[in-house]
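Quick note —
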Amino acid sequence: MLNSKNFTALGLMSGTSADGIDIAMLKTNGKAKIKLGPSGYYPFTNSFIKKLKKTFKKEINIDKVKKQKRIIQIESEFTKLNFLAIKKFLKKNKIHKNNIDVIGFHGQTISHNPSKGYTYQIGDPKKLSDLLNLDVVSSFRENDVNNGGQGAPLTPIFHYYLTKSIKKKICFINLGGISNITYFNHRNKDDFNKIIAFDAGPCCSLIDDWIFKNTNKKFDKFGLLARKGNLNKEIINNFLRNLYFKKKPPKSLDRSFFNLSSLKRINVKDGAATLNYFIVQTLLKSFSFLPSYPDLCILSGGGRFNKFLVDLLNKEMKAKVILSDYYKWDGDAIEAHAFAYLAVRKLLNLPITFPKTTGVKKPLSGGRICRFF
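Predicted structure written out below.
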């Protein structure tokens, strides 16, 4: 039977930091059985990053945007980059593509605005399927948004099953372009309908944009620049006045909802320090929406390499803070693994979003299958 089968899936993720493609493989039955496989990262060139970020908008008309020549061109280029990354990944890990059952292709978010009834990611699943001769699942967020949900975050069900053996109250924190948290209590026999998840606030997208703008580097390695800077409390307080932080979850953010305009008059080190302190405050504020304080915070995403940020979190949080790598989970690839997992759940028609993760009225499946024939 299909439901008892273990699938081999490949997940592709290009997050809000827009710096490259994460690829990860896993084997799963779409439920509690999860065996993580190899992962890899394939960076974009600086010129492609600049071109990609110019397409990001807080609000768009999807029908018009889809017809724009520059969007059509960049989507084609983006899809080809994903294909080439997969080829390199398979070759490096000596994996034959015929051993893969399905590809989970998230695409690159251009605009995420569920309050306006849409979410839009570029990436051509039909082209990718034809190039690979494999089934591809994409459009993971669409069904949720069309049914009144936030369309994000989508990783909570994966976080839940990945940590099932850790009998603690856990807050899984993804320090990606946007920081998002997943909370569940494995001390009790909670079912996945009790998972709480939402976007806490901007994260690496703001820091990376600030560094890229002022130094032409992609990120602040280990947070070394930030560590040398001084925080600007006024800027932090202005950021925190945004009504988003008072809004009850479920809730989600687009990377364009916050910008760097208030940092214009400070130097690069002070700006980096200020943004790091701001991120910590948004995470601390997010805990007020949880039923109880977690025992354990597991950090994943590129932000976990920002030692300055992690040190601040360790200092400010009452819970134990550890990196996902402690459990031998590649923190760079958690989301890519998640989309491989979600692709399998789509094949099995299992739900990926829930009332307390995205705000939908009932659990929903998500994604569209592009079959290769």
